[in-house]
Amino acid sequence: MDNNSYWKKNLWILLFGTFLTGIAFSEVIPFQPLYISELGNFSKSELSLWSGVVYASSFVVVIFTSAMWGRFADRHGRKRMVLQTSFGSAVTLFLMAFCTNVWELLILKCLQGFFDGVIPNSIALVATSTPREKTGYALSWLSTGYTSGFLVGPIFGGFLVHILNIRVSFMVTGLLLFSFFLLTYFFVEEHFAPDPSKLKAKKESFIKIVKGFPNTRFVVWILIISVALQIMNNSINPLITLYVKELMGNSGNISVVSGLVAAMPGIGMVLVSPWFGRFGDKYGTNKVLTLGFIMAILFIFPQGFAPTVLFFGVFRFLTGVSNAAIFPSVQTLLAKGTPAESTGMAFSLNQGAQAVGICIGSLMGSIISSIWDYDVVFYVSALVVLITFIVVKWKVPELRNGYKLE
């Protein structure tokens, strides 16, 4: 069957499904420290330590399993991977509602990391079922879906926790992911023909996997960009509430204001992401990526000397605009720069690169803010983006000159 006959249906179903997934994952993350405090009698320092360990544990597992799942997707199909990861995540998160101690929660978080990959596999499925000339448009819309979910999730989760309790929030999360599993199983189409050579192939090292791509150097640079972008975002995100508290003079409705400020990047990304996708399909994805890098540098740096919360919120919104240019562009370039039979592996490697960036960024932000202050984190994050931009423009001709990747 021609891709044109079903790619739009896949896109809208997976867009809605990744929206549900974004809600599911983001609605419980802000309240994990509260849940951990219910699972034992911890001091303030112990609670901080356990919160960090539990948060990081799933990403550590992702680093080691992403290539394995990518290989599986290229052998058996991306729809099967979406089904496995959504079902496994649904069961794991539902079971978190019944933890009796923090060790059980830690084990389940590691298991969640093992089944992680719902969104990247959905991206890979859309990328491989969409005509190449429409890839940027489709992936930009898909990013709008899960970004909107991550935006709505904390508000929805806060409502659940306030009205009911944290354990019910985990149950609802599991049910949302199970509904995505059902949507994908019954309505998403993939006409996948496995490559016999891949089915018989032995497990390969990371180096051999990367070298197997037709344009190895380009893929490696895209992975490096992904690491840098996650360092940029995750060095800042854990500190937003504390920075808002400082800007407000430790008074006022800090939690509400912090929630609104934290939502600003998501709002900015949702509003402009499809526009950047159409612009990239027409004029070149490399141009959109370049614009995104420049905007990120200009918008992140001033946040370090924000005089008011309003100033900070405006620039967080503008950071979302820059993210709308950067993140879908990276995904589009990865899809166009790899053959269809290896797209699952490419996106899984990208998922692993993002996990590395998340771990580095969170640790970097905490260390910098403890040695100096919150403002220095923004300056260093802007510097990371600037260095990455200069090196990429220097070393990657496909991004500098706009060579065609199709």
UniProtKB/TrEMBL annotation:
The keyword Transmembrane applies. It is a multi-pass membrane protein. InterPro entries: MFS, MFS_dom, MFS_trans_sf. It comes from Apilactobacillus apinorum. The chain crosses the membrane at residues 50-69, 81-103, 138-161, 168-188, 218-244, 256-276, 288-315, 355-372, 378-396. It is found in: Cell membrane. Keywords: Cell membrane, Membrane, Transmembrane, Transmembrane helix, Transport. This is MFS transporter. The keyword Transport applies.
